[in-house]
Amino acid sequence: TKTKHKINNRIPINTVEVDMKPEDFRASTQRPFTGEEYLKSLQDGREIYIYGERVKDVTTHPAFRNAAASVAQLYDALHKPEMQDSLCWNTDTGSGGYTHKFFRVAKSADDLRQQRDAMPTTCASNATPSLSGHA
Questions:
Q1: Dihedrals φ, ψ of 115, to 5°?
Q2: How many distinct structural domains can be found in the chain?
């Protein structure tokens, strides 16, 4: 299926959906991606076009690499033992896995506070030069 997207209503991007799942790239379904697994998952044969030209690899293309690297750093933060208490919760799927607090439905006011408090921690863990557009 071909889908057309625009970023900021300026740059037309065409994509083609691929039949891949996160499990195809992740060593364990009981935990989030690592940064490396996330980047590999983006190299799945998807077709992305920008300015009419095909992007061979979104992890290295100048228009996408910094965003991809930033998300990879967010995933890596979830695996740092010193950050797990502030960023992670067990999933509510019964799998025994864990995820970022923001990706599980809050069931109480305390859950909402913990989700809110996890966001600045997540952003601080990702404060790197790649966010500013410099690789």
A1: -65, -45
A2: 1
What interhelical angle do 65-77 and 35-42 show, nearest 10?
A: 140
Whole-number pLDDT of residue 125: 63
Contact between 14 and 2 (Cβ < 8 Å): yes
CATH number, domain containing residue 36: 1.10.3140.10
- pTM for the complete prediction? 0.67
pLDDT of residue 132: 39
The DSSP bridge partners found for residue 89 are 99
- Residue 54, in any domain of the structure: yes
Distances (CA, A) of 68 to 43, 71, 115: 11, 5, 23
Is position 133 within any domain? no
Is pLDDT at 109 greater than 60 in this prediction? Answer: yes
Domain presence at residue 93 = yes
Strands (E), 1-135: 2-7, 11-16, 47-50, 53-55, 88-90, 98-100
